[in-house]
Specification:
Elements lengths: L9 H12 L5 H8 L25 H13 L3 H14 L3 H9 L2 H6 L7 H14 L3 H7 L3 H10 L5 H13 L13 H11 L2 H11 L2 H14 L1
Helix pairs in contact: 1-12, 3-4, 4-7, 7-10, 9-10, 10-12, 11-12, 11-13
Pfam families: Arm_2
Subcellular location: Mitochondrion outer membrane
Organism: Sparus aurata (Gilthead sea bream)
Length: about 220
């Protein structure tokens, strides 16, 4: 299920809800096992789909200039604006390909560790739009561990956490990269319990469509219980 899909996978969702129902009392155990804790903040109002389309594809030289400016900018506000522009440009297939060819995915992903949270949010949005391109997913998948770390360390329902979950939702639409999320199933189930996080449910539904992943989902629920 891609981000923004309005056609639920009914059978998978029912099975998933059955699993989650048994995990409600077990969140505290997960916190003890993981040694971590989730922070709560008021849920932000965010768009379901991060794609913001500009009027037309960008010129190659324009994209090169933006990537160069992104690497040299020392101002967080400027980095946010550049990433926003690149994310908007990535709504077009031709730009998705050009950014990959210019090694822009690696450049953009480098800002997943930016000190400014708003820069990390814009980085995730840009990567999410780039992830709509199947060849780009081969380059983005290497950053899954960083994205999972952002999910675990960010306040619950924050823009940062939701942006990271959206990226994983689109990366897990097909079964090609779903195995990369096997170790994160317990985290996703816990998020679903503690915050009723719809975006976490979307990732889990994608994973549950893969028969090879269902055992891992069930076993994760058993460990929580």
């Amino acid at each position: 299920m891609g981000d923004g899909s309005i056609t639920p996978r009914i059978g998978n969702m029912k099975a998933l809800l059955g699993i989650v129902a048994g995990a409600g009392a077990s969140y505290g155990i997960y916190k003890l096992i993981s040694g971590g804790s989730f922070k709560r903040i008021k849920k932000s109002v965010t768009s379901e789909s991060p794609v913001v389309r500009s009027s037309q594809p960008s010129e190659p030289q324009h994209l090169k200039m933006l990537l160069s400016c992104l690497q040299t900018s020392s101002n967080p506000s400027d980095r946010c604006r550049i990433l926003l522009t690149l994310g908007n440009a990535a709504a077009f297939t031709v730009n998705q390909n050009l950014i990959r060819e210019f090694e822009g995915i690696h450049i953009i992903a480098g800002f997943l560790s930016d000190p400014a949270a708003e820069v990390r949010v814009q980085t995730l949005t840009a990567l999410n739009n780039l992830c709509m391109n199947i060849p780009n997913q081969e380059h983005i998948k290497v950053y899954v561990p960083q994205v999972l770390e952002l999910i675990e360390m960010s306040p619950v329902n924050s823009d940062l956490q939701l942006g990271a979950l959206r990226l994983l939702t689109n990366l897990s639409v097909t079964d090609k990269h779903q195995h990369l999320l096997k170790e994160s199933i317990t985290l996703l189930l816990s998020l679903l319990v503690v915050s009723n996080e719809v975006q976490a449910a979307k990732v889990l539904v994608n994973l549950s469509s893969n028969p090879d992943m269902m055992d891992d989902i069930v076993q994760a629920q058993v460990r929580l219980c």
